[in-house]
Amino acid sequence: MLVRITLAIVGAGMVSKNPVAKPIEPLFPRLTGGPRRMTADRVARHQKARLQGAMVEAVSRHGYASTTLRELVTLAGVSKSTFYEHFESKEDCFLSTFDEIVAQLSARVGEAYRSEGDDRQRLTAGLNAFMSLAVEEPAAASLAAIESLTLGAAGVAHRERASRAFEALIQQSFDHSPSKRSVSPPVVRGIVAGIRGVSYRRLRIGRGEELPGEVGNLVDWALRYQEPDTEVTLRAIEAAIAPRPVEDVDPAEDPPPGWDEPPDSRLSRSRLTQRERIVRAAARVVVESGYQALSIPAISGAAGVSNQTFYEHFASKRDAFLAAFEVIAAEALTRTADAFAAEGRRPEAIGAGLRALLDYVAESALFAQLAFFELPTAGPVALDRADEMFDGFSAFLEPDTAPPELGEAVPRSILEAIPSAVWAVIQHEIVHGRREVLPELAPEIVRIVLAPFNRP
Question: What are the boundaries of each domain within the chain?
Fold first, then answer.
């Protein structure tokens, strides 16, 4: 029988549910010869599927970054030469496994979607099939929802391709709806990303079993985008598209050098502390070469300090990188918060804050690269930082902060979905070379944020 990395096989006990400290032993029986042996083509497919199954198991044990080629071939019961017959690298194997999981899930969701009646029933059935993966196959779900982020830019195209199938189903629901209001592609993209974001959050904290219970809230949220813009939304959009005021610059102030100034330049040496130069150097190295190329000598060299000086401020390269991200993210959040506060607790504050965020991303290639691509590659601690950043931006929608006109609070899962939706829409524009024109997307971003607060 051909062994494939289907969800049924993964759930049949080949992937550990409790992956702590298990020995590296083959998961699959080796093929044997005989009169009914497989053809060469079927053997090759069998070997590839075993390697994909091994990837799911290894990643469930200790994450993608710590998975080794030796572990994969041992778990799969194949040789290294066989591995290279199927995959160019560990990353290639991971992405192939991701694509296979998504293909199986897409078929499952599509079948469920087509089996029901009206647009709400179809969408509910499809989402139930999607969320059941987290309960039935947590290892496969975590690989797709969490570990794929740790590949940084390398995983973006695969995640976008995976999203397109689900976006098509959402769009189909809208097309068959009695509502005549069209829903734009960025909003549809945001809906799918928001659902994925809720899955990611629950899986990260080990509460994937809660996801099926969120299907009703998420369906209500998705369908709300067919409703006309409320007065609250229109006021926020007006604020978001209004010309930006020119900031007054106090001539007495002497601002620090911009982030594009080399950390070891004469200006940086005269105006920045050693720690600040190290932080900026870490950001610069990552943006230029990627997190995987980051090293303490590279940081020290870019900062113009010794390795000893580096260790006086940071314990590891990751610490320096995360410090850089936190400084830049704080700048983005401050810019957003200031614009929000300037409008008071009015709907216009939401629009002004979102426009300020879009302006900041459009102006800061460094923030765009770090926040949207490189941050997750630094591992679980970096994912924690990303979650904290999302929480910071969604705090503007909490009842004690949001404009009173928004009404009652929406479900917690929707507050988790909204920043994921916004982030994915922005990332898509950056990937396709449209970072500088992000402010033009402000009306759609406002709709993504405020539609959940439209009350029937």
Answer: 99-226, 231-246+258-453
What's residue 292's pLDDT?
A: 87
CATH class of residue range 99-226: mainly alpha
- Look at residue 114 and tell me whether its pLDDT is greater than 80: yes
CA distance 437 to 419: 20
Cα 182 from chain centroid? 26
Tens-place pLDDT, residues 286-326? 999 999 889 999 999 999 999 999 999 999 999 999 999 99
- The pLDDT > 90 percentage for the chain reads 69
CATH class of the region 231-246+258-453 = mainly alpha
Residue among 6, 185, 182 nearest 102 (CA)? 6
314 contacts 323 by C-beta, under 8 angstroms? yes
- Tell which residue, 260, 439, 289, has the closest CA to residue 367: 260
Q: Do residues 47 and 2 touch, judged by C-beta distance below 8 A?
A: no
| Three-class secondary structure of residue 442 per DSSP | helix
Q: Which long-range contacts (CB under 8 A, 24 or more apart) does 384-391 make?
A: 385/322, 385/325, 385/326, 385/329, 387/201, 387/204, 389/329, 389/333, 390/416, 390/419, 390/420, 390/423, 391/419
CA–CA distance, 386 with 390 (Å, rounded to integer): 6
For residue 380 the two structure tokens come to: 């679980």
pLDDT, position 18: 42
How is residue 62 written in tokens? 């200790």
Asked if the domains at 99-226 and 231-246+258-453 fall in one CATH topology, the answer is: yes
- DSSP code of 405? G
Residue-wise pLDDT for 85-105, tens only, equals: 999 999 999 999 999 999 999
Report the C-alpha gap between 245 and 248 in whole angstroms.
Answer: 9
pLDDT digits (tens, 9 = 90+) for 151-162: 988 999 999 999
End-to-end Cα, the chain, rounded Å: 53
CA-closest candidate to residue 332, choices 423, 398, 409, 447: 423
